[in-house]
Every structure is written in structure tokens, then in C-alpha cells.
Specification:
alpha+beta; globular; TIM Barrel
Length: 799
């Protein structure tokens, strides 16, 4: 007991500005927090964070140490900040104006350090004016943009000028003014505008405050590594499995050495540990580095990685009913003439998924994570209405639950689900389940027994509270027969988190895809994640679905909530860039950089090829679905065909982009060969396994090559990301990890383009896809891409 007391006293007298370097290598015990501690994003001034996001037992905290530039709020100074004793969950601290852009906070538990990175995110104040230049003065002016989550805000008239003042973080922010309820059409007077990826344009404001300093991997050492920086750094935070370790700067250049201390990870489930490098200079944060380590050695071979190393995932999402009918006995469409065939059950089931697992379809493609659409029991009847042609709908998609724990008999039963999971695990693959928490169907027993557990269908003004995605996002109903649950009630949170927990305790599932994430309050996600970690013995990957601003999307991604969300902003930019031959990649480049800034350079966000709520990419690329039309209506009123086969090349470009960028690639079923279709339900056609055209076969082969390249490339899994060129319809991006570099080029031009390369080194040790290599350059086909991968002796300079 005396030794422990002495240790605690020693902790309490350490200065907060020395990053506790004296303690980084003394203790061989590992962090109590076994999942990555996500950064705390804070502004200058007072801030708070929830300790329970990182530590399940808040009362286990001995004390808290604050790093450079941090101070305890109630002291109002930069004095030593370690307050022992019982702590509240909400912990307040401040960042002074001289705080570095990267610092850290340390939670001490039984004398063991647990470090959390802290990002300073200064915001600039901007005035966005609308000046009326027309003869007819609008009666009402509103603004909406990425900083309002695209909800409209009313502005006050000041003699014909309407001004919105906003505090904006670094980056470009899109917005548009709304006049009398109709969006303003941009004119030549709007100097700063950008495509909205939907056939129109938005204004934007550029609040670029960032550094040009870059971190890069250098050499692998015995029990460590070195990294380089292109400029002088203000602060460096290196975390080895959530514990601060020292980075020693060379006296001669901007090279830092990290020696990994001896740690005992024998009690950890995963054999891979992660080292993260964060840094900043006086202008902002640099990129970060991520290094996987096993037995104290930096991992160089991707084959060492396991399926629960989340960065190694490639997801495949199928709508179960539209994948494969493996059991004809449960093929039972709803017997209602008001439902047209494409809105009814088509017979796909869990037996079909199991059959494709057993015949090696996913393995051949390179997939290591299968994502099942919702399989809980849905209603028997017909609901909803589409006017032309008139039809109702069945619950074939699974998103109308009348039970949260029972497998729908039209998909199979508990036995076949367990067979799928066992078969997948035997093949070193994950299985994650789509889960619906936001709402239930009106036939659900929970709604019948507790109608007071749902939000109101009507708002105070008497209007329907349906599809109010932004202005009433936490209470809106998806339809009049789909009551939204009221998660402000603790009993609802408990009931629904217990139902979700059932799926990962009763079955050995590896994760969730969470439906309608932004419509469910944070309290639900925090409660669910705590329960999952308390009741499972394996890593559980959780990815959410949120349409909205970067800030809204990121607000759900943290140690205490979700691992990731789908990056719909990047998908929209990629669709615009690759499906339309407009000769520009500028918006895609900006979106890529903004995603790295917001989610981190080694995030786990989902990079999708498409999904069940969007028209098929390939049908936009072929021109059979127009960007400026109602894509859902198009699928009902005409037959969508393939009229331009160059769309296969464009889908190949999208797949290549997803497979080479940071994040987790996600293939929507059929996108591996180019399934066509407008929006729901035309984008949910039955999967084809046979009878593919030569174009479809070639695309599937290309996707297979891309997936295998992804999963066998450390540079694509953990590398740095740098845009090396973006001009005149040519985009070049490089990913680099120690002795391996991958370069990908996209050519939007109608001519073959030549890019000079060091071909001698490439020909010695390299991989190429779509490459035409000459003695002096690489030739990039028009409307296509080229990927080059080069390996190098790490003891030689690599450029």
C-alpha cells in the first residue's frame, strides 16, 4: 500500500507540460483501455469530455494529467492539474491560446497510464451576407449548409441585406441561401461556387488553416522505427496501445526515433498492437501515422494480420432477399395483389448466403467481411404507397421490424445463421449484421404494449412529423406506420440496447451496421457500446449510417460510441468525379483531404461503391439515369438498360479509388460486375452469378484483382496519403508505408497520358494494374486508371 501511495504522489507532482516523458518507459503494464482512444476535438477555452467514453468504471480513475497547453478549468491557470479522488463523468479542462494543435490527456488507473490525444480546433468567425440584387425583394431569406447540417435557418432583414454569422472550423464549407422557400439559382455574381454532386451548385467559404508539414515513414528498427518530418514540429505525441512513448529527434535532421518498450500483451485478444504518431507545428496538425506491431516488431507482411484487425477489412453488403434463393421452401412473397413483384419478396435467404460461402465466392473475390441486411421478423402485410404505377410494399428489405430478436422465417432460422457465422470464421471471415434501432413497425409488440415509448407523429403546429430528417432528426418518423422510439426515456434505451446485445452474445457475430444512426441520440450508442464491451470477448466493429455534415458524422465516431460511419460525402464526390466526364477532380480531391482532416488519416470510415438508397453508380455513368431527375421515379416508369458500355470502366475507376484510399472498402452486391438500376427498389435487383457478359466478367475480375491488391499491400492498409497531382483531368495519389509505395493515377481525358516514373526500380520489384509501361514513362488509358506498386530496400532513399 505504501508503494502505491508513493507512486500516486509521484504522479501528482509531475509538471503537465513535460508530457510525462519520465514515465513513458518505466511501467511494463499495458493500458487498461484496449480499444483505440479517439482524439478529443476541442477549441481554445473551456471544454469537457466524458471519461466513460474511454473507461467503463469512472471511479477507477486515480487521477488525471493534462498535457501541454491544458489547464484545469476551475483553477484558471496552467498549474499542475492532477486532482485525485472521486471524479464526475463530465471532466472539464481548458486549452490556452498557446496550446499546440496536438497534445494529450492521461487517465491514471492503479498507477497505469492511459493516454488520449487532444486536438485543438480553432474556429474562425465568418459573416455570410445575402444582398438582394433583384427588383423583387424576397419576403423570406434562409441559409442552409454543411455547418447547419443542411437545416434551414431564418435570417433577419437589415435594409435588404441578410447576414448569417458562423464559427467555422478549418476547411471548405458549402452553403446556399433559400429565397421564399426556393433555393437561389447561382449567377455570375457568385464567385465562389462548387458542384453539389446532384446537378446543381452551392456557394462555399474557404477557411483553410492547415500546415504543409508532412510526416513520413522512414526505417524499421529492431523493436522500433524512425519517421521523418518535412518541417519543424511544435509537439509530438506517440501512443503505443494508448500509452505515451518518447520520440527522440535527431540532431542532424528532422528524423525521429521511436523505441518500443517491453509490454506484456499476452492477455489481449488481438495479436496486433497499434502505434499512432500525432504531431503539429505552429500552423496546425500534420498527418498522422499508424504502425501495426506484433511481438514488439513492426508488421511488414499483410499476411500477419487477422480478420479482427479492422483496417484489413473489405466489406461485402448484400440484401439477403435479393442475393440467392437457397431454400425454396421459405420463398413466400406477401399474398397481396397491391404489391408489384419488384416490391415483394424474391426468395433470397440465409441458405443462399451459406451456399455462396461454401462454394468460395467471397474468398475468390477477396472479401473478408460479409454484411447481412436486417434479418429480424418483418410484417406479413402490405404498407406504404407509390403512386405511379400504384403499388404497396412488403418488408422484404428487413427494415420494418416486428421483432428485434427473432429471425424472419422467410430468411431461415437461428440454425442456419449460426452455420453462416461458423463457416465464415472457418474461412477467416467476419460476419456483421444490419440492425435497426431507431424505429419499429406498428405491429411490433413493443409499440402495442408501450405506445408512450415513441415520439409524436404530429408536431405542435399540427404538421406530420415524417421524413423531417434534419429539423426534427431525433423524433421524425420514417412513415406513418413506422413509429420512432423515444430514446429520451431510459427504459427505451435499456430495452433496445439489450435487444442489440442479444445478437452478439447469442451469436458470434463480429459487428453491426447501424441503421439511421443520426436519428438516434448519443446516449443509446454509448450505452450499447458499454454493454457490448462488458459482455463480449472479441473485437466488435460498429459502423453507422448518417447523411449530413462532417461535424455531425464525426460526433458519433469515438471510443465510447461507433468505430466508423459511411463516408457519403466522399461517395457523392466520387460519383460526380468518375461518373461524369467533366475533366475535373478538384472537388473529389478537396473532399478526400477534408475527410482525412475530420476523421484522421487512418480512419475506418466505409468507402461504398453504392447502397440500397441510391441509384446504381453504373447507371449514372452510362447516362441511363440522369442526375437531375427523380431516380426512384425513373425506376418505376421506364426500363433502365445499359446504353454505354464505357460505364464499366467508370465503375472500375470508382472501385479502384475505394480500394486504394484510407478507410474500409464496401462493395454493394452486384457492383463487382456492374448491376444496373435506378433508385429503390430498382437498385435491388436479383443478384447474377451466371450468364455474365464479357464486360461484366472483366469488371468482376478487375474488382477481384483490386481487392487482393488492397489486402496484400501495407501501403494501402496503413500508408500515408498524398495527392501528388490534380490538374487538367489527371489525378495522382500516393500511399507510402516504410519500404512500399503505391501510386494510383486517374485519367479523365480522351487521350492516353504519359507520366514519368523510375521504371528501373518498378521493373525490379513492382505490381501494376492497367499499366502500359515503356522505358521512360507509364501510359494511362483515357477514362481509366493505373495503379503501380513499388517495393524498395528500406536502407536506401525512397522517393
Amino acid at each position: 500500500m505504501k508503494k502505491l501511495l508513493i507512486l500516486l504522489i509521484a504522479i501528482l507532482i509531475i509538471s503537465c507540460d513535460n508530457n510525462d516523458k519520465e514515465n513513458t518507459t518505466l511501467d511494463t503494464r499495458t493500458s487498461v483501455i484496449e480499444v483505440m482512444t479517439t482524439p478529443i476535438y476541442k477549441n481554445v477555452g473551456s471544454n469537457k469530455f466524458l471519461i466513460s467514453d474511454y473507461v467503463l468504471d469512472v471511479e477507477s480513475i486515480d487521477s488525471i494529467t493534462l498535457g501541454k497547453g491544458c489547464y484545469k478549468k476551475d483553477l484558471g491557470s496552467n498549474n499542475d492539474i492532477k486532482i485525485p479522488g472521486k471524479l464526475d463523468d463530465s471532466y472539464y479542462f481548458g486549452l490556452n491560446d498557446k496550446a499546440p494543435f496536438v497534445t494529450n490527456i492521461t487517465l491514471w488507473i492503479d498507477g497505469i497510464r492511459n493516454d488520449i490525444p487532444v486536438y485543438k480546433t480553432p474556429q474562425g468567425q465568418f459573416s455570410l451576407p445575402y444582398v438582394n440584387r433583384t427588383k423583387n425583394k424576397p419576403k423570406k431569406v434562409q441559409i442552409k449548409g454543411s455547418f447547419t447540417n443542411w437545416a434551414t435557418i431564418d435570417l433577419e432583414d437589415n435594409n435588404g441585406v441578410w447576414i448569417h454569422t458562423a464559427a467555422l472550423p478549418a476547411g471548405k464549407h458549402q452553403y446556399i441561401f433559400v429565397l421564399d422557400g426556393v433555393e437561389e439559382k447561382l449567377t455570375e455574381n457568385d464567385e465562389m461556387f462548387i458542384s453539389n454532386n446532384q446537378g446543381g451548385f452551392n456557394r462555399y467559404i474557404d477557411n483553410s488553416l492547415s500546415t504543409n508539414t508532412k510526416l513520413s515513414y522512414d526505417k524499421i528498427l529492431d523493436k522500433g522505427f524512425t519517421f521523418k518530418t518535412s518541417g519543424s514540429l511544435e509537439n509530438v505525441v506517440v501512443l503505443y496501445e494508448n500509452q505515451l512513448v518518447e520520440a527522440v529527434k535527431s540532431k542532424n535532421d528532422n528524423t525521429y526515433t521511436v523505441n518500443l518498450p517491453e509490454k506484456d500483451f499476452s492477455n489481449r485478444i488481438s495479436k496486433t498492437q497499434l502505434v499512432r504518431v500525432f504531431a503539429s507545428d505552429k500552423n496546425g496538425r500534420t498527418n498522422d501515422l499508424l504502425i501495426p506491431v506484433q511481438n514488439g516488431q513492426v508488421v511488414e507482411d499483410p499476411s500477419q494480420l487477422a480478420r479482427n484487425d479492422f483496417h484489413n477489412q473489405v466489406l461485402y453488403f448484400m440484401m439477403v432477399d435479393r442475393f440467392l434463393d437457397g431454400d425454396k421452401s421459405n420463398t413466400k412473397p406477401v399474398n397481396d395483389p397491391e404489391i408489384l413483384p419488384k416490391a415483394n419478396y424474391m426468395g433470397g435467404d440465409l441458405a443462399g448466403v451459406l451456399a455462396k460461402l461454401k462454394d468460395g465466392y467471397f474468398e475468390e473475390l477477396g472479401i473478408n467481411t460479409v454484411w447481412l441486411s436486417p434479418i429480424t421478423q418483418n410484417p406479413e402485410g402490405a404498407y406504404g404507397l407509390w403512386p405511379e404505377p400504384k403499388t404497396k410494399f412488403s418488408g422484404y428489405h428487413g427494415y420494418w421490424p416486428i421483432s428485434n430478436t427473432k429471425v424472419d422465417y422467410r430468411f431461415g432460422d437461428e440454425k442456419v445463421l449460426k452455420e453462416i457465422i461458423e463457416e465464415a470464421h472457418n474461412r477467416d471471415m467476419n460476419v456483421i449484421l444490419d440492425y435497426v434501432a431507431n424505429h419499429v413497425h406498428e405491429e411490433h409488440p413493443l409499440y402495442k404494449e408501450h405506445p408512450e415509448w415513441t415520439t409524436d407523429l404530429y408536431l405542435e403546429d399540427g404538421s406530420l412529423n415524417t421524413e423531417r430528417w434534419d429539423d426534427h432528426r431525433l423524433t421524425t418518423w420514417f412513415d406513418t406506420f413506422l413509429p420512432t422510439l423515444d430514446f429520451s426515456k431510459p427504459e427505451v434505451v435499456e430495452k433496445m440496447t439489450d435487444s442489440a446485445l442479444y445478437w452478439v452474445t447469442e451469436y458470434k457475430l463480429d459487428g453491426f451496421r447501424h441503421d439511421a444512426t443520426k436519428h438516434v441520440p448519443e446516449e443509446y450508442w454509448r450505452t450499447l457500446t458499454q454493454k457490448v464491451r462488458n459482455n463480449t470477448d472479441r473485437p466488435i466493429y460498429q459502423i453507422g449510417e448518417t447523411y449530413g455534415s462532417y461535424d455531425l458524422i464525426r460526433s458519433y465516431v469515438s471510443t465510447g460510441m461507433l468505430d466508423a460511419q459511411f463516408d457519403f460525402n466522399q461517395y457523392d464526390a466520387a460519383v460526380s468525379a468518375f461518373a461524369v466526364a467533366d475533366g475535373s477532380y478538384s472537388n473529389l480531391t478537396e473532399t478526400l483531404k477534408k475527410g482525412l482532416e475530420y476523421y484522421g488519416h487512418h480512419h475506418l470510415m466505409g468507402n461504398i461503391s453504392g447502397n440500397q438508397d441510391r441509384a446504381r453508380f453504373i447507371s449514372y455513368a452510362s447516362g441511363d439515369v440522369k442526375f437531375d431527375e427523380d431516380a426512384k421515379k425513373a425506376g418505376w416508369t421506364r426500363e433502365i438498360v445499359m446504353s454505354d458500355s464505357t460505364a464499366f470502366d467508370r465503375l472500375g475507376m470508382l472501385q479502384a479509388f475505394n480500394m486504394t484510399m484510407p478507410g474500409v472498402p464496401v462493395i454493394y452486391y452486384g457492383d463487382e460486375y456492374g448491376s444496373i438500376g435506378a433508385n429503390d427498389p430498382d437498385n435491388r435487383r436479383m443478384m447474377k452469378f451466371n450468364g455474365l457478359s464479357s464486360r461484366e466478367q472483366n469488371l468482376r475480375k478487375l474488382v477481384q484483382e483490386l481487392v487482393h491488391l488492397r489486402r496484400n499491400s501495407m501501403s494501402l492498409l496503413y500508408g500515408t496519403t498524398q495527392v501528388v497531382m490534380e490538374e487538367n483531368g489527371l489525378l495522382g495519389i500516393e500511399r507510402h508505408y516504410f519500404n512500399e509505395s503505391t501510386k494510383v493515377f486517374f485519367n479523365e481525358n480522351s487521350l492516353i497520358l504519359n507520366v514519368g516514373l523510375n521504371n528501373a526500380r518498378f521493373r525490379e520489384s513492382g505490381t501494376a494494374i492497367n499499366a502500359i509501361v515503356t522505358d521512360k514513362n507509364i501510359q494511362i488509358p483515357p477514362g481509366n486508371f493505373v495503379i503501380l506498386q513499388m517495393k524498395n530496400d528500406q536502407n536506401k532513399d525512397f522517393k
